[in-house]
Amino acid sequence: MTQVVPTGWRARLDLRPQLSRVRGSALAIVQITVAAAAAWAFAHYVVGHPAPLLAATVTITSLGLVRDARPRRVLETVVGMLVGILVAEGFVVLVGPGWWQLALALGVTLLVARFLSPYPPFAIMAGVQACIVMSLPATEPFSRLIDGAVGGVAALAVTALIPRNPRREEARDGHAVFAAADAAARTIVQALRRGDALRAARGLEKARAIAPRIDEWRASLDSGLAVAGFSPWLRPQRAELRRHHAVLQAMDFATRNLRVVARRAVYLCDDGRRRPVPAEVLAELMRAAELVGESLDDIALQPAAREAVRAVAVRLDPAQILPDGSQGEQNLITAMRPFAVDLLTATGMSSTEARAVLPRV
Q1: SS3 of 155-184
Q2: How far is CA 151 from CA 40, 145, 338, in A?
Q3: Hey, what domains does the chain have and what are their CATH numbers?
Q4: What is the rounded distance in angstroms from the CA atom of residue 141 to the CA atom of residue 143?
Q5: Distance CA 41, CA 52 (A)
Q6: Cα–Cα distances in Å, from 262 out to 274, 322, 328, 332?
Q7: For residue range 264-290, what is the model confidence (pLDDT) as tens digits?
Q8: Looking at the predicted structure, is the pLDDT value of residue 125 above 80?
């Protein structure tokens, strides 16, 4: 399907990226707003603090607009900020406020935070909160620590009660992996059909570029599984997320084997000869892989995807497909065998069952 890409003044007036960004962050904005307001109200009306700034700031910072909404990440952020508040409150009690006291409190906070966590933002968040505590007056000792704790509890409560949809991000990342694999394979297929070495090299580059997309999918899936395990409303989604995780593992191996196929194609295309037979075999595999990708959204498509991959895998005998082919051409077909096995495991087959589908060579 051809997509129109705005250019010139139309690109400058195109608001779709901005609107998409807002839609993607809408639930996170609601989550942050509700949590911050609730934390401030609790600290003000229940605890009795006149200006519980840190109750709101801790909530906002710990939730954030980041993709990774895992409860553990939220908790680590809260702990980092509470460390900064605690150290600064101690300095206020012992030596009072002032510029050199702020510098000393900030230095100690950063040292303690770096000791506690290898994550650099942990120390920065602790340092920021320490500076806020050292700069703002307090009605009573350690009142800001209570505000921060209220904000942390509010952030964790909202993570459980108003969770971000874990399926949306990971499904988009999953489809991006399949789309990238398809684009790489299409380029390799075209290179084999035309005997185009430059196109084969581009296919290899595209295949190598899939790895970051795999990492993004893994991160969003890990986040989704953590949120689904923490929120009572999302627990029914855990089974589907675990299924997607199994597909991810299989596609991780599949994309690595696709790189092997691409490297062999680059080697073969150096002589400029057209090779339509291995090109068609790879094209058939990718048509089956497209069904595997569609099964992410509809598990009912998984059996059809499995049979589509199986129909190609049972024929992957290099001697049968290319009886008069060169050793390099037969090696290319051989390289497609583990790729087909990985696609079969992505449809729910065990690796043993998937390998048994291949003809003996």
Answers
A1: HHHHHHHCCCCHHHHHHHHHHHHHHHHHHH
A2: 8, 10, 51
A3: 26-161 (no CATH), 166-228+235-357 (1.20.58.220)
A4: 6
A5: 9
A6: 15, 18, 13, 9
A7: 999 999 999 999 999 999 999 999 999
A8: yes
